[in-house]
Structures are given as C-alpha cells and as structure tokens.
Amino acid sequence: MQATDTAARLSEAGVTHAAHEGASVGDYVQLLKPRVMSLVVFTGVAGLVLAPGHIHPVLAVVAVLCIAVGAGASGAINMWYDRDIDAVMSRTRGRPLPTGRMAPGEALGFGAVLAAGAIMVMGLAVNWAAAALLSLTIAFYVFVYTMWLKRRTPQNIVIGGAAGAFPPMIGWAAVTGDISLVSLALFAIIFMWTPPHFWALSLYRSEDYERAGVPMMPVVAGRRETQCQILLYSALLVPVTLLPWWLGAVGTAYAVGTLLLGAVLVMLAVRVYRDHEGSGGDRAAKALFAYSILYLFVVFALLMVDRALGFGPAGAAVTS
User: Fold this and answer.
1) pLDDT tens sequence across 37-50
2) What is the pLDDT of residues 255-280, one digit of tens each?
3) What angle do the packed helices 34-50 and 279-308 form, to 10 degrees?
4) Can you tell me the distance from the alpha carbon of 177 to that of 53, in angstroms, rounded to the nearest whole number?
5) Of 135, 159, 179, at which residue does a domain stop?
C-alpha cells in the first residue's frame, strides 16, 4: 500500500496522531489478541491431550504457555504491520496503534521478543520439533498471511488459515516429538473451519474491508459467491471432523456429537445462503459467525472428553 494512500485513509478516518504518552498494560494485552489466543491455546491443549505417551505436567504447562505467547507475538506483529488499515476499519480503529497510544516500534519489538522467547523456551524445555512447528506458525501468520496474502487475494483466509491450524500439531509434537496422521487431521479441521467462520464475518463487515482495501471475498467476488463458498466449506467440514474417529484416535461418542454439531452448522450456512440481500442486518451471517466459534470449541472439547473417558482406542492405535 502506498504511503499516500495510507495517509489519505488515516485522514478520512479522523485518526489523531497524538504524541505517544506511554502504552498501558491493557494496551499490551490488547496487542496479544487475547480472544484469538484463547482459541489457539484450547486447540493446542487438545493436541497435548490426544497425543499418545506422557509428558511431565510442568513441561505440558510450559508448552501451552509457549503456544499462547507465540500466538500473542503473532498478533502484536500483525497489529504493527496492519496499523494503517486498522485505522480505517470500525472494528479495529480503537486498537493501541491507530489511536496513537503506542508507537509502532514498541509493538514490533514486543512481538519479536515474545516470538523469539517462545520458540527458544519451547525448544530448550520441551523439544525442538514442537519449537520448529511454533516458529513455522508464527512465520506463516506474519509473512505469508499478514504481509503477503491479506492485501492481495480473496483466498487470504483460505491459505492463511493454516497459521491458526498448527496449534494442535504443536501440542501433539510437544508430547511425541513428531507429526502423525491424527495431528494432521486436527490441523485439517481448523483449516476447513476458518473460511466459513471469517467469511461470515466479512459479509456483515464488507464495507469495512472495502474501505481498508482488503480483498475479502464479498468485496472481490460479491455476496452471492461468498454465500456459496460458505455453504460449500461448511458441508465439507463435517466429514473432515470425522477424521480423528476414522483414524481410531477417538470413539463413537465423539463422532455422534460432532455430526450433530455439524448439522447445526450446515443449517446456519443454508440460512446464510438463502439470505440474498442481507436482510435484517445480516442476522444469518452473524448467527453463523457466533455459532462457528462455539462449534470449534465444542468439537475440540469432545475430542478431549472422549479421550479422557477412554471411549477411543488406546494410544498405540493413535500413532498410525
């Protein structure tokens, strides 16, 4: 994005370039994107729980903290790079950088230090396989999604969604030191979940994205194509969630539960598909977005509950 374009958009948004008086603790917390971090941590814990073998509880806590800090580091660097477009989007203009509460260098330095620290601690305390996956996750989110894809293609969420899908693989590797078909299945669930989740948001935030020059699907391909893609990915997600069961990692209780959850997801996606004009303030898209968050949490909760209650086969079958 050209500097002149950025300046014009900041001016149009009425952003005040106030002197930086020192960021508060709350500003640094906001940089970490705590809501996103909570989902990342939860799926990472699921990878730890499902992995065969054992890990010392202290090392398990260290691994989870490293996943959390790595996610927060990615969020901070993302906010540093996206401060220009954040300033013109109503959803993000209150963040520390667009409002001038924090200098850009502070955010970049904070994120870089956290990223390096999380990777190093993961490698030294847990294992280097998990550390390598953590570094790949951070690099993918920062360089591939934030800096390359987000402003260039409507497929930004599809490809970039891989960054959010790595945490369960990291948790798995923290226990086993390797990658397996089951950990790849957990990756696939989040990877397929990401497009309908974010495209539902983009349907009722399309004016924000258009104003910021971000080529989200509704802006580039239109509302109808976005609705079709949401329904397609939602339908494909249902069989993907059955992969851990098919691979023998969990039992029938998980399969039944996730099928019921998937049926509701597809039903909501059908409602979005039928809502041609975004009637009623895009209620269908908002309902799908809200449910999709709950959906992913519950799917991964079912994975852990199923394993904890012993409904699935024992660990040896899981390593295939």
Assistant:
1) 999 999 999 999 99
2) 999 999 999 999 999 999 998 765 55
3) 30
4) 10
5) 179
